[in-house]
Design brief:
This protein is mainly α and 241 residues long. It has 9 helices and 3 strands. β2 and β3 form a beta hairpin.
Length: 241
């Protein structure tokens, strides 16, 4: 198996496990979201005012704790946004968070709402939420890396396929990166500067969005290379009798 595929597989599993572990907590850790809510909310208002002077953003907050045991774990896997997610579909926008989870996750979701107060952040979030664009990008993810592999001679074209697959997730990756940036700024303003472990959790969450396209891109590359055969030349053609 190609090293890139192994890397993608090795990346996906631990990141998914880390998110499930954090979002599936049934008991609060020391630096939990509920304890930090008031300070982070105040810092959120300050960050929004920095990004868009005079703006005020109200939001509905849902504190959602998973059920203990396998049932809760499966629900976190299926509906992770119920335990750490944000949405502007309604007015006011909403944030869901597991109150037991690390406060960095709450700051990240606040970061989404803060990012959307800027022109760039609003544009990227709108692109990500656009159902037609989502369908088009999904189609591109499933087809373009394989087509590129088929058109590029030789089998040494995995990097091209992976890059094209990652590009299909560009709106999501930019939106998540902006949310992380503003989430960290909110934590700073709250006097809760993120430590290395918390930064690692947020970075892992961002990288987890790359795992699926890497796997699809690698698989599409293999399929594309089945149809990528070097043309016959006089030197490698078979002799006829």
């Amino acid at each position: 198996m190609n090293v890139s595929i192994l890397a993608a597989l090795g990346l996906a599993a631990p990141l998914a496990a880390l998110n499930v572990r954090e979002l599936g907590r049934t008991r609060p850790i020391l630096k939990n979201s509920k304890r930090a809510l008031r300070q982070l909310d105040s810092a959120f208002d300050k960050r929004v005012d920095e990004l868009k002077p005079g703006a005020q953003v109200a939001y509905d907050l849902g504190l959602v704790t998973p059920k203990p045991g396998l049932e809760g774990t499966l629900d976190v896997l299926k509906n992770s946004g119920h335990y750490a997610g944000s949405s502007q579909a309604n007015k006011p926008p909403g944030i869901n968070i597991n109150p037991n989870a690390d406060r960095a996750y709450l700051a990240h979701e606040m970061g989404h709402l803060a990012s959307q107060q800027t022109d760039v952040g609003h544009f990227v979030a709108s692109m990500r939420a656009n159902p037609k664009l989502k369908t088009a990008l999904t189609g591109a993810l499933l087809t373009v890396p394989g087509i590129a592999a088929a058109l590029e001679s030789g089998d040494d074209d995995m990097d091209t396929s992976l890059a094209l697959a990652a590009l299909s997730q560009a709106p999501t990756l930019v939106d998540e990166a902006l949310a992380t940036k503003n989430g960290l700024a909110i934590m700073d303003k709250a006097g809760m500067r993120a430590n290395l472990g918390q930064r690692g959790k947020l970075a892992g969450g961002l990288l987890s969005y790359l795992a699926a396209p890497m796997l699809v891109g690698a698989a599409a590359n293999k399929v594309g290379n089945i149809f990528d055969e070097d043309p016959m030349t006089p030197d490698n053609s078979q002799a006829t009798i």
